[in-house]
Amino acid sequence: MTRRLLAICVLAAVAGLCGCGKKSGATTADPLRTAYDSEADWNDPQRLIPLGYQQAQGKRIFYQQCVWCHADATPAGPSNRSNVTPAPPLFNDGSVLNGESDEYLQNIITLGGSALGKSAMMPPYGKTLTQDDIRALIAYARTMAVPPYQPAARPGPKYSEK
Amino acid sequence: MPAEDMGKISGRLRLIFSVSCVIFVIALAISPLKDLRREWKRYKRGYARFAQTRPDTKRLMADYHSGIDQIWIPEMGVVDRCTTCHQGIAQPSLAGPSIPQPFRAHPPIPHQVQEWGCVVCHRGQGPSTEVAEAHETTLAWEQPILPGHFIQGACGSCHRGNLAETPQLTRGRELLDRLNCAGCHRLQGIERQVMLGPDLTNIGTKVSREWIYKWLKEPRTITDADGNVKVNGVGTEDEPRMPKFRLNEKELVALSAYLSSLKPNPIETAKFDPRVLGTWSKKADLGGQGELRFRQMFCSTCHALAVSRAGETKMVGGDIGPELTKVGTKVKPDWLAAWLRNPQGYLPHGKMPRYEWSDEDLYKVTQYIQTKLTDPDLLSTVPQMGAATEDEVKTGRRLFLEKGCGGCHVVADVSPQKDFGPDLSALGGKNVSQLEFGASKVPRNLISFIQAKITNPLSVNPAGRMPEYNLTPADLDAVTMALLGMTGTPATSGMEKLVVPQRHAEFRAAGEFGKLYERYKCYVCHQFNGYGGTLAPDLSYEGSRATRQWTVDFLKNPQTLRPTLVLRMPQFNMSDREATIIADYLGMVLQHPSVNPAVIERSQFTPPMAAHGKELYEVKYQCQACHTIGSSGGYVGPSLNNAGNWLTPAWMEAWLRDPQALAPGTIEPRRSFTDDEIKSLTAYLLTLKQSGTGNKTAGVGRPAGGAGGQK
To answer: Which candidate from A21, A65, A83 shows the least CB-CB separation from B633?
Structure first.
């Protein structure tokens, strides 16, 4: 009798303790379903690139301000890129932009091309866009870059030279 | 015996008592043991161990303590314990995908995560300290977290006006408005408009019974299985506005009978000057002449047509008015002539301006529409129904009410069927148990419910009256986001203070100008102090920008240097008097408070200043990257060939100083010109004049850099 009662108690206790150890419900989610926005790779329309909040803001600002000269097609049709000499790099051209540090890009967008010894046709945007806007643009460019952008271990050399 | 018994009983009692004690002690021991093994404690310890592996351990552990972390926002009734596990949420050094969850920092957003917590945006259960209960729907707590893809819906709960940062949410709200959802449903922040679908008061004078039958059976704009929208079989960007109702043959016959019987105001037979008819009716290429006029008047700014070029058929034209590819088969000839002469006589709330027509032009254009914009096969599948019988009309009227047609359409003796469908103004905050899934197979969550209701309402409720909307996947998600943001009146007054309300702009044009403003429907394309369309430039400060003479010339003969543009200001054939009234009103009333064109004398700008300005333009600032002068330069900004006639010097100076102050959101970047440079550039721009009447230029119309139609 006593033993049986004790056994029941112990079983109840074990069961109670077991109830605590619940599984954690982490599942691997589809990156597009968790992304704030997405955009098709410019070179491969089938490949959708997920964009976080910051990159999505960069995309929005890009299509307002930059697309006219830094893309070959614009929402309004043909691009102005062919009217500008020297031809501005495409926004997703990793072979040009991957070599530049974030700081350098931040500076050239803020101060304009002529301030950094480049073409004066690139106007300064420091009084039009906020520094956060420009950071968002850079984040967006990095995401879209082909070949893909690999962040440098230390700030890029070009900025510190100038 | 009793004493012995007593001893025996007390022995048993003692045993029961001691066993109970053991049970009690074990039970007591379980709770602290259970507490030791709480899920969140594992993450707490995990974070401490993880922080040891990082170079900035000291900073990461600065706010660490072993208990539950909580953010409390009493105004919103929010208790948020997410940071108990998501401990690195505000640590910049823990950003990026290389950091394991739940310790990763939140990506940059405009709100401080330490201040607002997580559930305000992500939803889910803030007070919960277990993974499953916090993130998913459980028996006790129903609100799961929103997938990141739909997060903009949560922005909408507080931000009732549109934000630049949430384009999909804005698109969803626009769609709810354009698709006339407010016709049947109460929505948060989307008012029911005076005119939703076309006014059907007099529809019997406009179209035949057969055409109504065809339209009800198969609306012109349909979406195929891949989500491509097609108008008359041609792909378009426009979204279908008339949804598909599931009508059977009998209902189609009855409804078409009822609608075709609605003709209280008969249309007069079209009359044209006999001389015009005498000259034109025999011309061989009458339709072609009409087409030319149709194009010259820029009807395509609002109306799209299917155009075949190089073997490819495309929709070309705007989406403000209906698409017209087959309109000749749709409307009756007398109605067409009467409509073109005075659209406001048929539809007082419509968007179509009243053009000033010559008989000749009107005749040519009506002939073009009736002979070229037709499809002889359009009604070939419609059964011959003959005249409507009284019974059919009666049944049709009953069906009209039963189907809720009066939600969107006006008919003389039917009062608007507002609130025909359920109130959706608080749908976004509903729990799963509040949604009626019935016996359907739709997954039990709010997002699936909303999407099933829109695409296939019968899957949720087989007896439902809701029509079907075939939206593209992106548009469906956008509409879902907008509905998720409709969480109703805030539960607490403190929360009400946090809501960012929608701003309503209004503009009332007075006097003679007011009449012209209504006649030519200026506000359909242009904005006036925040009110109106966004297709064409904002005219709120037009009186400071353009000279009076240029405005008069332009209104009489709107031309642009961008011949490739499809969407351009139509040719209204205004009289001199009308153009002068408009130009005077713009000049007097629509001025920027700090740009008075009268204060700057043109004589102060000298040729040497202009020469210096030219150098600045071409060499130092290289404005030609975006602007055209002569035939070279870019076309992001407007052409400046006629700037000297077009723009006032006061506007030029103010614009060069700070374009965004005059036109927020314009793409012209703000530069750091000195005052001297501004004077010189203005002097140079004033020398740019095109010979002749000076009306041949200016980038009015949609500029290539048309973000918001700003110049």
So the answer is: A83
Which three-class secondary structure state does DSSP give residue A48?
strand
Same fold for the pair B167-192+420-498 and B513-709: no
Closest to B166 in 3D by CA, of A7, A70, A59: A59
Residue A50 φ/ψ, nearest 5 degrees: -70, 140
Strand partners for B468? B244
The reply to whether CATH 2.60.40.420 applies to domain B167-192+420-498 is yes
- Burial class, B24, CB count within 10 angstroms (exposed 0-12 / middle 13-18 / buried 19+): exposed
Under an 8 A CB cutoff, do B19 and A2 touch? yes
Residue A160 binned pLDDT confidence (cut-offs 50, 70, 90)? very low
CATH number given to A32-147: 1.10.760.10
Closest CA to B568 of B709, B458, B361: B709
> Token pair for residue A78?
């043909």
Range name among A98-102, A150-154, B254-258, B430-434 with the lowest pLDDT average: A150-154
SS3 assignment, position B369: helix
DSSP-assigned states of every residue in B210-276: HHHHHHHHS-SEEE-TTS-EEETTEE-SSPP-SPBP---HHHHHHHHHHHHT--SSPPPPP---HHH
For residue B672, which amino acid is it?
Answer: S
Q: φ, ψ for residue B575 (rounded to 5)?
A: -80, 165
Domain boundaries, chain A: 32-147
**Residue B178: is its pLDDT beyond 80?**
yes
- pLDDT for residue B606: 92
Per-residue 3-state assignment (H helix, E strand, C coil) for B377-402: CCCCCCCCCCCCCHHHHHHHHHHHHH
CA atoms of B174 and B172, how far apart (whole Å): 5
Q: What angle do CA B50, B55, B59 make, to 5 degrees?
A: 80
CB contact under 8 A, B669 and A124: yes
Quick one: three-class SS letters along B215-229?
HHHCCCEEECCCCCE
Please, which residues have CB within 8 angstroms of residue A145's CB and are 6 or more apart in sequence?
A92, A93, A94, A97, A98
Q: Which of A64, A81, A129, A131 to mutate to test the interface with B (most CBs of B within 10 A)?
A: A64
CATH superfamily of B513-709: Cytochrome c-like domain (1.10.760.10)
Q: How far is A155 from chain B (nearest CA, A)?
A: 16
Cα separations in angstroms, B438 against A158, B305, B444, B459: 64, 44, 11, 9
For residue A51, list its beta bridge partners: A37
Dihedral sign of CA atoms B666, B669, B675, B676 in order: negative
Residue-range domain boundaries for chain B? 39-145, 167-192+420-498, 203-372, 513-709
DSSP state of B95: -
| Domain B203-372 listed as CATH 1.10.760.10 | yes
| Backbone dihedral angles phi then psi of residue B449, each to the nearest 5 degrees | -60, -50
Beta carbon pairs, A and B, within 8 Å: 132
B23, B152, B704 member nearest A76 (Cβ): B704
What is the token pair recorded at B268?
């007069």
Determine how many CB atoms are found less than 10 A away from the CB of residue B496.
Answer: 12
Q: Give CA separation, B216 vs A28, A42, B248, B413, in Å.
A: 46, 41, 10, 21
Give the pLDDT band (50/70/90) at residue A156.
very low
Q: B657-677 as b/e, with b when 16 or more CB fall inside 10 Å?
A: bebbebbeebbbbbbebeeeb
